[in-house]
Amino acid sequence: MTEDRGDHDVIVIGAGFAGLYQLIRLRDAGYDVRVLEAGGDVGGTWYWNRYPGARCDIESIEYSYSFDRALEQEWNWSERYASQPEILDYIRHVADRHDLRRDITFGTRVEAMRWDDVSERWTVRTHDGRSRTARFVIAATGCLSVPSRPDVEGLEDFGGELYWTSHWPHDGVDLEGKRVAVVGTGSSGLQTITAIAPVVGSLTVFQRTPSYAVPAHNGPIGRRLEDVKPGYPAFRDESRFSRLGFHCREGETGYFAETAAGDVRRELDDRWSDGGLCFTQSFRDVLFDVDANEALAEYVRERIREKVHDPETAEKLTPRSYPIGAKRMCVDTGYFEVYNRDNVSLVDLGEEPISRLTERGIVAGDVEHEFDVIIMATGFDAMTGALTAMDVRGTDGTLAEKWAAGPRTYLGLMAAGFPNLFMITGPQSPSVLSNMMTSIEYHVDWVTRALEYLRARGEHRMEPDVEAEDNWVNTTNDVGDLTLMPRAASWYMGANIPGKRRVFMPFVGGVGTYKQIGDGVAVAGYHGFETA
Ligand code: N01
């Protein structure tokens, strides 16, 4: 293990996909780097989210590193969409292959960071009271890493087993034959519900808002990977310049104006039978035009009615209160069919809200439901949560204060007042609206190139201009407002966290467009940044 002297060129926070690749790039460039990771091993989101059925919703051929050409050829995924255990195996394999663990301190949570304008260094304090310093800090802390734990009355009173999908026990949980509740019907809830329904004695799902879901049609990867491998470099390049950071046939025509009714149906049927997140790309106006969006939503509602036998349950499962695509779409594998099982029931929290937990279970409406196990799949304080959970003090105050009315960044990479602090897939970058692997690699490469630029010039400080930051915040908001995305009470908007200011946080202009802007800024001598 490399000695952790405590003073480094760079501290990277987080050993998920972003932190590991950042370590590789900076170590190769000769920097002294220390990675601080709260978990017991590498993996980030895939280390913590071990709930039954956890699986990626981006295809395996796209959701992997592109920087290691030999690895890209050697690694074989088994399924079209990789499961959490397989992805974790992959990340561990990368850590072994590049001997990364020697520069990572595990079981160490960063609690505070303070910038010193005299020494021009960050002091980073961890939960064990230890301090380290670094010229640069790179937050590879993830967009969905701080669980949202709703303040439900009586949470402590429940006498059975209580689990959170976002912190699932490493030894697994025996659910066989038990009376189980799941609260939450986002991606984590849907996957958990589908996986455990055949195993548990009874399953009661507590749903606040129904989700739109498109079938995954998951299965063995077959020849798909072998077909892609010979042309992988070009394939990756296409992803980098695409809208979503992965291959997705983008609809070129508008829904009403330019498409005949028969063609619309054929297009939607084709996409539905292909499965996956590209469904919402069917027509170019789906995220802009209310009527086009409603037509697509109605197609999905029809499919739900076909799958669920009981019309009353089908109606409860049918999303109507927000545009399709304005909340993160789910990709499912037999989710709706689960409700045809005799051991599964649904509680609509719109009609019967949860008032409290008791020793025996959950009180919703007038009924106390009794359970052996309650599983909370209630989501995350997304995008800003991990950054504001730390006490980050820059030149003029804390990041939490600066972002009280919503995040303010330049390119989602840095924030004015916080010199030498970089964010990987920070708010106001494409991040969660893209294949995270494409966006992570782009940001890591961009940050590495910026540090190399400073070093070549004998400089050691970088910070965005307030004006450049203001412009980028306005651009991000303006582009977001062109779409229907702000019309849903989504975690993209921070709407799932009580008291969090509702602002549309990701950059919705597309990965390829964002790359052109980011590359242009760099080529123009880091336009909008002050360096010294
Ligand atoms: O979290 P969510 P998630 N009482 O916020 C409900 C990625 N991901 O962990 O919609 C009752 O989507 C909440 O209701 P509402 C992916 O990007 C990917 O499922 O706020 N219910 C909602 O139903 C995803 O979008 C994969 O009204 C409460 C649910 O809990 C993101 O992570 C797998 C409640 C939370 O859903 C987050 O997904 C998993 C309360 N007090 C995750 N509070 C794949 O790759 C919240 N809810 C497939």
Report on the structure:
The chain has 532 residues and is α/β, with parallel strands linked by helices. Helices cover 30% and strands 17% of the residues. Strands 1, 2, 3, 4, 5, 6, 17 and 18 form an eight-stranded mixed sheet that branches. A five-stranded parallel sheet has the order 7-16-8-9-12, covered by helices on one side. It has a three-stranded antiparallel sheet with strand order 13-14-15, with no helix packed on it. α5 (187-196) links the parallel β8 (179-183) and β9. α1 (17-28) packs parallel to α13 and α13 (436-456) packs parallel to α15. The protein is globular. It starts with 6 loop residues before the first strand and ends with a strand. 3-acetylpyridine adenine dinucleotide binds at residues 55-57, 144, 150, 183-189, 191, 208-209, 328, 331, 349, 354, 377-380, 432, 491, 496.
Question: Summarize this, please?
Answer:
The chain is an alpha/beta fold and 532 residues long.
Distinct small molecules bound, one entry per kind: 3-acetylpyridine adenine dinucleotide
Instruction: Give the DSSP E fraction (strand runs of 2 or more residues).
Output: 15-25%
Q: Main sheet?
A: 8 strands, mixed
N-to-C span: 34 Å
Alpha plus pi helix count: 15
Poorly predicted regions: none
Entry keywords:
single chain, 532 residues, alpha/beta, eight-stranded mixed sheet, five-stranded parallel sheet, 20 strands, 17% strand, binds 3-acetylpyridine adenine dinucleotide
